[in-house]
Amino acid sequence: MKVTIKMIAEEAGVSMTTVTNVLKNRTDRVSKEKIELINDIIKKYNYTPNMNARSLANSSSNLIGLLYHSVGGRIDFSDPFVSELLAGIEEKTKDNGYFVLVYNIETVDDVIKVQKNWKFEGFIIVGLSENSFEEIHKNIPSDTPIVFVDTHLTADMEKEFINLPNRYIISSEDRQAGHEATKFLISQGHRKIGFLGFTFNENEPGVINERFYGFKKALQESSISFDYRFFFTDKEFEKITDVLEEITALVVSSDYLAINLIHYLRMRGLYDKKKLSIIGFDDVSYAKFLDPPLTTIRLNQKNKGIIAFNLLNKAIHGESVDKITNLSGDLIVRESVTNVASKIGKQARRKNEK
Amino acid sequence: MKVTIKMIAEEAGVSMTTVTNVLKNRTDRVSKEKIELINDIIKKYNYTPNMNARSLANSSSNLIGLLYHSVGGRIDFSDPFVSELLAGIEEKTKDNGYFVLVYNIETVDDVIKVQKNWKFEGFIIVGLSENSFEEIHKNIPSDTPIVFVDTHLTADMEKEFINLPNRYIISSEDRQAGHEATKFLISQGHRKIGFLGFTFNENEPGVINERFYGFKKALQESSISFDYRFFFTDKEFEKITDVLEEITALVVSSDYLAINLIHYLRMRGLYDKKKLSIIGFDDVSYAKFLDPPLTTIRLNQKNKGIIAFNLLNKAIHGESVDKITNLSGDLIVRESVTNVASKIGKQARRKNEK
DNA sequence: TTGAAAGCGCTACCAC
DNA sequence: GTGGTAGCGCTTTCAA
């Protein structure tokens, strides 16, 4: 049998209001004796309020929407990159008394749907492009805070963004990460370097776009010209096999993609880590267990999830929060990159590994 | 501005009841013209009903609770074993118009909490021991269906379970899996075989317990006696190093644990796949990318998630459903197990790999 | 066919 | 301090 405020009020011989006041800890409005009495009854029946009624009555709900954006099913929970973020969020969220509704959004309609169906305290939305960002931002009332994870904005848009109330961004320094990854390859003597990433829109900022930008910048700084023949998307593994003799290294936009490529090549007897160095991004939990252990830029997704929640939590409580947070990546040197410049440095390659 | 039924009714010049009837497709109670008119308005405002109000008024909610049981934080979303299940569930769930609330439960109180806070259509609960199973089962009304994933019951309990309305179980044939894994090691000439698993209660059935049972059975069938010195928990890696010279193979209760062990040994210079064969369970997505590629029993978590949802969905709609579903595992032969019996068979070891 | 009204459980406002 | 009550948006029962 469901226990309600009314029942508690009856048993205690008080009004519903008084019970509510006790529930809400408005101690100045209820006498000490009643507080105790009511609390005892609450405990006795193990009463917990009905969230639907509560959400209906006011606007609070303790519900947080974790929305994953996926175009064409690209985002998959089995990708550790995704689940590690979730791990971070889930952990904090529960400790703070929230509930998380996980929803995969493909179109704006999906957002409108969750949005109207439930009352949310706030949203954490992952992986939105700038275009989708605008649409979605407009469709969620400005009194509901949103933390956008891994959304990148053009400079113009960013200026606007700064003034948007209740909208926050947390992402990695993807440009810097791409730059660092590439610089590392160059430092190891590589000159013919390719780039492999999930398909992205070159005219719109985004995680991969940013990494690609950092990649090109690093090449440029070393006066290396980039040959677009060495640019590949995740659908073009076979194109890579064609130029295997021409490139010595590859910047791959995620560990996940990197190991898939290695596997693809290996199955065809084409993988030789001495001849093709590979650096990834993320440092997923098993990157160090791979063959070869992956050299990568650690982005620490779990930590990102924790911070995303903290931002949201503060925003919900009306505390002031940084509009844009950028987490820097760390180069993790393992064994998928070979030094082709000299024989020295083989030791150094392990420095980051414990 | 939120659109409500009332507003729609006003604009259409009808009563709320009529709008509801259209919403519910009760076409026999409304005239054709009004149906069209109302539908137009609904479309125009992109109306979607408020779930909180709806849930409050009736008992439906379109909400499914995905509850992960973790004692001492053992279950972690970054463990692919967990996230792959979620991937399967999320996929189906959305297609069928449900929303998923993900919650990590540690105690029965946690269950009571979610349970009273929200109205759920049903639950998918993962990783419950028999004891917790009973407690939780009792605390959720019997008209709410629950699918228990990976819960194992003793024979007595199982008899009772069969008659419990709205309770279902889906799990893997863990005993058979343990048996198969061990038999494979034996077929490869191993005789000194150890077992490594997360700590478990020997008196209570459970995933690892079952695998261990199958393990012992296989040994027995080959008249190999089991030495408890070769039994290890996840906290006892160093105990393994002590007997490294004595055992030639290890059955490890999950891929996740297996790679952690390999890494642990490798870091100490103690890993030699020729001298220590390892077989895991799950076949997590990256098992084939590891060094060495892991020989394992594939359990297909994603598929399990899909099936779990299907069971629940049918149960919610009152269709009859199998009380207990068992998914069999498949031996996937890769390279972490060495044939110590003969020189032949090295070819065969690759047969399962594409 | 259509509509009025009660009630789901809770909160906030206002009165005593 | 305490209590009454309207109302959140929706569904269902009963009446017209």
From TrEMBL, chains A, B:
Signal peptide: none
Record-level Gene Ontology MF annotations: DNA binding
Keywords linked to the UniProt accession: DNA-binding, Transcription, Transcription regulation
Record carries keyword Signal: no
Domain spans labelled HTH lacI-type: 3-58
Taxonomic superkingdom: Bacteria
SMART domains, alphabetized: HTH_LACI (SM00354)
InterPro entries in alphabetical order: HTH_LacI (IPR000843), LacI/GalR-like_sensor (IPR046335), Lambda_DNA-bd_dom_sf (IPR010982), Peripla_BP_I (IPR028082)
Pfam families membership: LacI (PF00356), Peripla_BP_3 (PF13377)
Official protein name in the record: LacI family DNA-binding transcriptional regulator
